[in-house]
Amino acid sequence: MMKIEKRFNELMSFAATEATFALSKLLSQQMTLTSANVSVKVTEVQSIIKESMKEEIAHINPNLGGAIIMTTPLLGTLEGFGTYILPRISALRICDVLLHRTLGSTRQIGCLEESALLETGNIVVGCFLNALGYVSVLDNILHEKMTLTVSNHNELPNFNEISSNGLSRVRINFYMKHIVENEHQRIDINGICDFFFDSAQVTELLNIPHDPEKSC
Fold first, then answer.
1. Which three-class secondary structure state does DSSP give residue 126?
2. For a tag on the chain, would you pick the N or C end, based on fewer CB atoms within 10 A?
3. Are 199 and 207 in contact (CB under 8 A)?
4. pTM confidence score
């Protein structure tokens, strides 16, 4: 398990850097990655993960206006789903930049704002999924069109589509700092990406002998 977790740490940290570069290009702003904390956990009780995510969202709510949650199904060799959690204030500022508005003018999330946020979500999630594809034989992990949930009541993704036998969770908490002279113009991004898979499927795939030549 330690070897697997170390591999996840290396790849997800690299993916966070890639996501930072990609968002810098999209936003036409200089962003730098200041931290990326990765954890890999396996639990037989889904309620443990649910409670953990509730705590994360509740921690965001008091000072940052709540949480924006983007979710997506994961298909391919390994099935599951992913979530991208973003403080509401960060999401609104991203909308200001992408929609060419004065910083601080976006107050609500409508169709235009959802489209802008999903564009950033697809970039971030896509970078992490690309990295997940390098973990042993966990290749060909695809995601469909993301859906956006504005969470004002600690809403959580639907775990029912995954087997109740246990979940493998890969969590990445990252902080992207906006490099700008005027501190009031900063649009720092403090996000969390979670990926959930059936732990039995993960174990089965990781135990398959891997031929490096076939992955070239």
1. helix
2. C
3. no
4. 0.81
- Start-to-end C-alpha separation, the chain: 25
Domains of the chain plus CATH, in order, are 2-209 (3.40.1550.10)
Backbone angles phi, psi at 70, to 5 degrees: -110, 130
Other beta carbons within 10 Å of 95: 23
Residue written as token pair 């204030």: 89
- DSSP category for residue 149: E
Q: What is the pLDDT of residues 138-194, one digit of tens each?
A: 556 667 777 777 654 556 666 665 555 677 888 899 999 888 777 777 788 888 998
As a whole number of angstroms, the distance between CA 207 and CA 138 comes to 11
Q: How far is CA 63 from CA 59, 114, 195, in A?
A: 9, 22, 26
Residues 117, 35: Cα–Cα separation, whole Å: 22
- Of the candidates 123, 212, 115, the residue with the CA atom closest to the CA atom of residue 176: 123
> Which amino acid does the sequence have at 200?
A
